[in-house]
Sequence to fold (218 residues):
Amino acid sequence: MVNEMVLRSQSQAIYSPENIGHFGLNLLKYAHFTSPIRRYADLIVHRALVGSLGLGEGGITPEEEASLDDIAAEISTFERRAMAAERDTVNRLIAHHLAGRVGDEFDGQISGVTKAGLFITLPQFGADGFVPVSTLGRDYYIYDEAHQALSGEKTGLGYRLGDSVEVKLVEAIPLAGALRFEMLSEGRPMPTATRSFHKAGRRGAFKKPGTRPSRPRR
Fold:
């Protein structure tokens, strides 16, 4: 989970004619290069080598070299589009595979926390689904962004990023690639700092002058 959060915090890589190195590999100079050719970015590098080393026909032309900024931007855009299409396809296939198992219980892990609820990953299937906060129980759950947690206002029990939980599949929508779960695991005690932060906020720390504190909507 730490590895996942580190990856999410990093900026996405882009193709560029300007060689600014590779942060992840700690290289001051870097060129994306694979052989055999797998993508258009590889083809550009191969053609540049052909032209620079005088290896024959097919080298990159001066006109194309002058357009490398636009070419790099297009490659980056289309690669992101392809990755999104692949992700959507996998999600739909997994939802289709699990559609016949609605009502079954699974071991999962909390992979995301938002005000609206919890994202759950099923490691066994590589599937991701959602638990709406409104289905977590009768307690009022408060979102703590700093600790990536949902904490019960009355009980102090809640759920944090990375927690191992047990869930039940209640809905699978193959066309949307969506899964909805019901939480079966009880929440665990939240850190004292998290609970103190919530209490301070509920006392009116964020109250506007001349207004009465109102209960936040779920």
The first strand starts at residue 105 and ends at 114. The longest helix spans residues 68-98.
